[in-house]
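Fig. S4 source data, part A: sequence.
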Amino acid sequence: MTTHLEEQQSVLEIQGQTPLKGEVKISGAKNSALVLMAGAILCSEDCRLRNLPSLVDIERMTQILAAIGVKLHRDGDVIDINAQDIGQDQAPYELVSQLRASFFVIGPLLARLGMTRVPLPGGCAIGARPVDLHVRGLQAMGADVRIEHGVVHACVKGSRQRLQGAKIYLDYPSVGATETIMMAATLAEGETIIENAAQEPEIMDLANFCRSMGAIIKGAGTNKIVVSGVERLHSTDYCVIPDRIEAGTLLIAGAITHSEISLSPIFPEHLASVIAKLREMGPQVMIEGSDRLRLIPAPLRATDIKTLPFPGFPTDMQAQFMALLTLSEGSSMVTETVFENRLRHVAELQRMGADIRVKGNIALVNGVPFLSGAPVMATDLRASAALVLAGLAAQGKTIVQGLHHLDRGYDNLEGKLRKLGANIRRVHGVEQPHQNLETTQIK
């Protein structure tokens, strides 16, 4: 068992240009699993979640739920959750500060208890992502919400301490705000309408999970969701959807190494924009049956990408596609519209020989004949995956540092790549060479 310090110092060593081959199993979706775990608070009976990925973020959410009195038992990819005895205890800041999804507990706690205190969240440093849309939605439902000294205090006025249905328009189709309001509305009195709601597959998964407990929700997956509140929810046994971002990342692993690979299970409709872009660039993506994809490689052509809320191109795939575009014939333009700090991987790709120029939220990528292995540092979760992909294609050895980012969102990515034939290994407790890179790069 490695210590936390060793984990902070571990690196991935990748010997590039090794072809991949075979089939890989896709884990449960991180962004679904986290919110479903919070959603289990809505029910005072036993809830079972299956297909839970093995991730640092899932472990943190487990600790946060335990801190507020939830009983949890995990066995492999199954977790049993019982929130019967939840209390007023505040989740500790040191946990919440590491996990943005921790804020999801506010809606269910408010719906169940009528009052709660939740520290403002942390997570990847990729943008402001304020919680004001969550707060305004809860206020519209009758909650009194104030933020003092970094803690959100929320309580429901009136003797019954029950949220009231409301008509809520979101200024931006925020996934988190849609999920918070939808969860809170399941136990509210009356009907809640969410206009300009997020349409991501994870929203549909949460709605299906809540429905499996007896909630009345219509329109999830469209921009208008209607929730009719019920008195209480009952126990459920529910399976988390496959992770579309992990699947997309592995498709690019095939494309960037010119390798044929298959992956399952996956819902192809969750990856429609990613599949369309890959096909535009040359590789074929074959949909086989209801839940299997096969990538057939081809020479790579440049294309333009603009991130947008679902069903647009996902911001969570932008960094990985940029790695692919660095080796594509021609010039590409990548426009990031969702998060303002999400181009920090550019400097690390440049270290490997990529030709990229950044102006504001736009990156201009000119394809190069090859990338060269180098020591690189992950700056956030998806950037870490992009550097692993670049390393798979690069000449020579790439050393990826900052693996705590990777482990937050990918369930054994290097193990899955190794099974496909990649020459990749994790080395624990090594000295970090990244600080001295400037001198080593100058010839």
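Fig. S4 source data, part B ends here. The radius of gyration is 22 Å.
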